[in-house]
Amino acid sequence: MKKYKHLSFEERFAIEKLFNSDVAMREIATFLKRSPNTVSREVGRNMVNSVYNAKQAQLKVYQRRWRAKRQCLCTSSGVPVFGVNYQLRSPGLRS
Questions:
Q1: Rounded CA gap, 32 and 13, in Å?
Q2: CB-CB neighbours of 85 under 10 Å
């Protein structure tokens, strides 16, 4: 079974330098020992104004992870509540 891992900032930085110097996606993927699909998705998902920037890409990743965690809050019974601004409260506290 394969273990999947996120791209590191160093990998994103290498993608930035190679992609912006017109190196082919497959060559970048070979250099990073990643799938060409991974590199292609990364560039497509995090490109701004036709330029790939590693710092900007890392910021976008953090924002997506934060939003994903915020959208799935669970009630005290363990049932997930999606897309609702729901505050968890202690059963003993009433306001």
A1: 11
A2: 7
Check residue 86 and give its pLDDT. 47
Indicate the domain borders of the chain.
9-82
Q: What are the counts of helices (DSSP H) followed by strands (DSSP E) for the chain?
A: 4, 4
Residue whose token pair is 């009630």: 75
Report the alpha-carbon angle 33-36-41, nearest 5.
120
- Name the DSSP letter for residue 70: H
| Token pair belonging to 6 | 């996120």
Rg of the Cα trace of the chain? Answer: 19
Residue range 51-68, pLDDT digits in tens:
899 999 999 888 888 777
Q: In Å, how far from its chain's centre is CA 51? A: 18
Burial of 62 per CB tally in 10 Å (0-12, 13-18, 19+): exposed
How far apart are the two ends of the chain, measured CA to CA in Å? 49
